[in-house]
Hints:
The complex is a heterodimer of chains A (277) and B (321).
Chain A: H1 2-28, H2 49-55, H3 63-94, H4 100-111, H5 116-128, H6 136-143, H7 150-162, H8 167-174, H9 179-190, H10 192-207, H11 210-216, H12 225-235, H13 241-261, H14 263-276
Helix pairs in contact in A: 2-13, 3-6, 3-7, 3-10, 4-7, 7-14, 8-9, 10-14, 12-13
Chain B: H1 2-20, H2 22-61, E1 64-65, E2 73-74, H3 78-86, H4 88-119, H5 126-139, H6 143-152, H7 158-165, H8 180-190, H9 193-205, H10 208-216, H11 221-249, H12 253-259, H13 270-279, H14 284-312
Antiparallel strand pairs in B: 1-2
Main location (chain B): membrane
Membrane topology (chain B): Multi-pass membrane protein
Domain ABC transmembrane type-1 (chain B): 94-305
Amino acid sequence: MQKKWISHLTLSVISLFMVYPILWWVGAAFKSNEEIDSANIFPSQLMFSNFTEGWYAIPGYSFGHFFMNTFELILGVLFTTIISCSLVAFAFARLDFPLRNFWFSIVLVTLMLPSQITLVPQYDMFNAFGWVDTYLPFIVPHALAGGIGGSFFIFLLVQFIRGIPKELDEAAKMDGCSWFGIYWRIILPLMKPPLVTVAIYCFLWNWDDFLGHLIYLNSVENYTVGLALKMFVDANSAVPWGQLFAMSLLSIIPAVIIFFFAQRHIVEGVASTGLKG
Amino acid sequence: MKQLNESAIKEEKLSKQSLISKGKQKRKRWESPVAGYLFLSPWLIGFFLLTLYPMLLSLYFSFTNYSLLEAPEWIGMENYSNMLFNDSTFYKSLYITLLFVVISVPLKLVTALFMAIFLNQKLKYMSFYTTFIYLPSLIGTSVAVAILWRNLFGSDGLINQFLGIFGIQGTNWIANPDSALGTLILLVVWQFGSSMVVFLAGLKQISPELYEAASVDGASKTRQFISVTLPMLSPVILFNLVLQTIGSFQMFTQAFVITKGGPIQSTYMYALYLYERAFAGFQMGYASALAWVLLIIIGVFTALIFLSSKKWVFYEAKGGK
């Protein structure tokens, strides 16, 4: 009984220690610049102006614009990822074709490939296509089951499809269903849970793909939230920390909302990859 | 997980059954390769066009002088020899990156492992604690957190306020070349939650019977940890170790936003150096050579981990993996 009590105490202290910087951050977003250095979480006076002024801090564009940009990029990436990765995963998990195991091992190898190795030639290629300063350098690789996390998503989905009983396909096959029909009518509807996981990770990782955004997006018009924040820091010699914290706080809200609504999927996603490797 | 395993067994049985009906199998044989490659085609095109071809191209670029504007000019091994013999920044950034990887990865994994073991007990509100501890991992790689970190470790930041309570006079941790890398390491270790969740899932897979048997034999808690927990968890540890190592070698955003590689290049990570050579200096050939060296270094590290894993990773049954 007492042991339980000690566990609870220890865990509470650790949890507080882990989230204290975040709590302080939330407080700091409402603080005036004079008060910002205080370790106290609670501001003496709530400065909502941090949000209203921060929102328009970058001349010419509001943060709403950058949020819409980021959402636009990510919607394109999400849609293409779900289609392409599920198609490819279906092939690996259900169809029998020459060199299947070889290609699958290549998928696993690309999982470990550092992105720097293709950075320069990809930039060169996309530049030649006139895709720099558009969202195509992000969307096209995802449409080809690549991009950030592509191999990982294929792997995750293959593991899941392998767990779906094959009787279902066989029965559909008997009824004269084509391979695409099996994918579309049987496997895809059953794949909802792992696809949610894929969508969540795809969202989070692309939201934070700072290097990619930095390289390919060069006009403020097309900036994502991350780039806008970086610009906000660099533009001011005396950083208006209150406003900056307010805006950066807003920038993580989508991730936090997703986390609280889909916690189970995140944890399962992480867990399944670690166990079935 | 268990369900997945069970259905995998089912699947095996089924495929055996279907082997019996060979006639049907034969009809499938000819139509399925075409369908297979059709379904595979997005990935296959992507692999050739966006991975293999750029990789070979970057290998070629690494032997050239290339600024994007003019055609690449072949200079043989010059990039590599310059890197090895004339480029002190290369060595500096490599050293810093190695230091970062060698310190942060074990620290993160050990913290994650112990927290996972601690969280793996039957208590109320466990998922509540897990959520809080996981939260930093969720947002950790964003620009927003990098900005937060820059302030926390500044001269008047939260950390110094906290140290002040104990009468310790802190410096500006980020402006100090001796501590700047440390703040980045702390930032990464703070995000041990994702590894912890993987360990936690691994711990739940270990059969309680093993612990019962161990305690019947009189094994202490420490002994149980060494003889049951660690071996059973070793495949998961290997997985985490490989992915964390590869990821840490490529650390970019935090170094770029928090310290910009400074002060006096004390946090000049390899990926940052490569980025600046490519997109600030437009030395694409040199940057490609840097990328290939990085690939080789990561490859060597990964190979060493896998080779050593034969000694310390325990697989329950050969068929189990």
